[in-house]
């Protein structure tokens, strides 16, 4: 049975003084529009962010050349390619359902999220090149999905070398696209190093999905658990 908790409020990192603006910022259209513009880049580190910019620039250039060849003016070709490239990146490489869950109509069975996380965890543990992965947020605290408005806060970590850079960035696209199709609110980022976990609340739990060298368990011994896997 769906929980009866009130609609979750979106935290933008600042609160406007205007009550009207504060209200508008919590509407579905505005939440989606802001997410389309910024696409979660505030939470990204260099390796993920640089790949994202490079990929969108390549897609933009391809679309721009196609439009130019179709005899569309330079201005409209540039504008159209920019909007299309940005929209494609937003749709297949971002967190659409994470935003939708702030809307009143949103409901998602916790079992679907739990099954998704279980399957992805097994997949991650089979990848020899991926050494570290954790869940934070409510799953990190509770060890599982419990609410119809929950999301999955999954964090992966880059290894050294250019091959890991490309493998993990393309894996992010795969997971986000899969989550899009399966209607899973997957809040997914890849970090350059485990030290970034220090930025989160010191009492926030960390659920270990994979920790090959034991670095996360050693550094955050008071916060980690591996009850899920």
Which band does the percent of strand residues land in? 5-15%
The number of helical elements comes to: 9
Question: What is the level 1 CATH name of the largest domain?
Answer: Alpha Beta
The beta-strand count equals 5
CATH topology of the largest domain: Beta Polymerase, domain 2
Q: Main sheet: which strands, in order across?
A: 3-2-1-4-5
State the share of residues found in helices, binned by percent: 40-55%
How is this fold's topology laid out?
Elements: H1 19-24, H2 28-38, H3 46-69, H4 74-92, H5 96-100, H6 110-125, E1 132-136, H7 137-142, E2 152-157, H8 162-182, E3 186-191, E4 206-211, H9 215-219, E5 224-225
Parallel strand pairs: 2-3, 4-5
Antiparallel strand pairs: 1-2, 1-4
Helix pairs in contact: 3-4
How is this structure best described in words?
The chain is of the alpha/beta class. It has 2 domains: 28-93, no CATH class; 108-225, Beta Polymerase, domain 2, CATH 3.30.460. It contains 9 helices and 5 strands; from the N terminus they run ααααααβαβαββαβ. It has helices spanning 19-24, 28-38, 46-69, 74-92, 96-100, 110-125, 137-142, 162-182, 215-219; strands spanning 132-136, 152-157, 186-191, 206-211, 224-225. The protein has a 5-stranded mixed sheet. Strand 2, helix 8 (162-182) and strand 3 form a beta-alpha-beta unit. Helix 3 packs across helix 4 (74-92). The longest helix has 24 residues, at 46-69. The chain is globular. It starts with 18 loop residues before the first helix and ends with a strand. Mean pLDDT is 88; it is low at 1-6.
